[in-house]
Amino acid sequence: MPLSAATLFRAWTHQWGAWFAEPGSVHMTAEVGAPFRFEVAQSFADGRATIRHPHYGRFVALERDALVSLTWVTGPAGTAGVETLLTVRFHDETAGTRVTLTHEGFSTEEARDRHATVWPLVLAHQEEVLQSGRIPEVAGLALPNNRAALPRNRSIPSATVVPTRSYPDLDAAVAWLREVLGCRERLRVPGERVQLTVGSDPDGAGAIVVAAWDAALAPASGGRPPAILMVRVVDVDHAYARALALGSTGLTPPTDQPFGERQASVRDPAGHAWSLTQTIADVDPAGWGGELVE
User: Fold this and answer.
1) CA dist list (Å): 7 to 15, 21, 66, 99, 120
2) How far apart are CA 194 and CA 253, in angstroms?
3) pLDDT-based confidence at 221, cuts 50/70/90?
4) Is residue 138 part of a domain?
5) Between these two residues, 100 and 240, which has the higher pLDDT value?
6) Number of structural domains, the chain?
7) 151 and 286 in one domain?
8) Phi then psi for 96, rounded to 5 degrees?
9) What's the CA gap between 237 and 5, in Å, rounded?
10) Is 33 in the same domain as 90?
């Protein structure tokens, strides 16, 4: 296909509703072992009622931009309730990406042959949709009503949007936030930063990160210490690419971090700095120097 491996991997892990499944029916988190379900709507030109076909499965293996493997269970017209294995591999080539799809484990030759006929048509449709740009521009963002798409990571707050504020006196800043806003300390990196939650529920409805600031290393901008807004996203590579395409300036490209996040930062056309973060693992903070407080 004349598409990048990253684009195709994203389509097979986060964008089923754009090229295969009925929009709004997809319940999926791209994690090994995580179950998923969605529906495919079958319409008829002769006016018959639309039939919805449920699809179920779980992710078996994920290799970024290289492989997606998942179990695949459908009804009488598909696998007849049998759990099959679907594996898609992506191979970089000069003109794009070679896609290899294997689907195995069928209980009958009829079911196997039926899927062998249909999958090339599905892939052709996928290529058409991805090339047309009909994927929603916000598809890479984990919006508040899409919390199921945000995996857990003990090393970061669960909030979707997290402001980071810099202070010359870390402990004084934490004390002020506790007294004034009722914040609770959740994680501390001694001498570097503190994560706090705010809100009435146990995890806090929101979160704030307080970072140590040395004016000699990072001069104030406009008379104020540095500040940045972090947003958790489903796919940081996609969000970063969209930001650049819409006029933002890249500050740091997407990079895997030891605390289980893949992060990038951009400056939007108005000059505001944003940190984009995607959870790629649930990491114990003790493994990278953090100390859980809560």
Assistant:
1) 10, 17, 11, 12, 18
2) 24
3) low
4) no
5) 100
6) 2
7) yes
8) 150, -130
9) 12
10) yes
pLDDT tens, position by position, 117-139: 999 999 999 999 888 765 554 34
Cα–Cα distance between 210 and 192 in angstroms, integer? 9
CATH of the domain at 9: 3.30.530.20
- Spell out the alpha helix ranges (H) of the chain: 5-14, 16-19, 109-132, 170-181, 236-245
> What is the domain-level CATH number for residue 226?
3.10.180.10
Classify residue 183: in a domain, yes or no.
Answer: yes
- Give residue 200's pLDDT band: very low, low, confident or very high (50, 70, 90): low
Query: By residue range, what is the domain housing residue 258?
Result: 144-292
3-state class (DSSP) for residue 262: strand
Q: Is this structure's pTM higher than 0.70?
A: no
DSSP string, 157-197: -S-SEEEEEEES-HHHHHHHHHHHH--EEEEEETTTEEEEE
User: Do 109 and 157 reside in the same domain of the chain?
Assistant: no
Task: Tokens for 266, please give them.
Answer: 């951009």
Token match 């936030």: residue? 177
Contact 263, 255 (CB under 8 A): yes
Q: Is residue 139 part of a domain?
A: no
108 and 13 part of one domain: yes
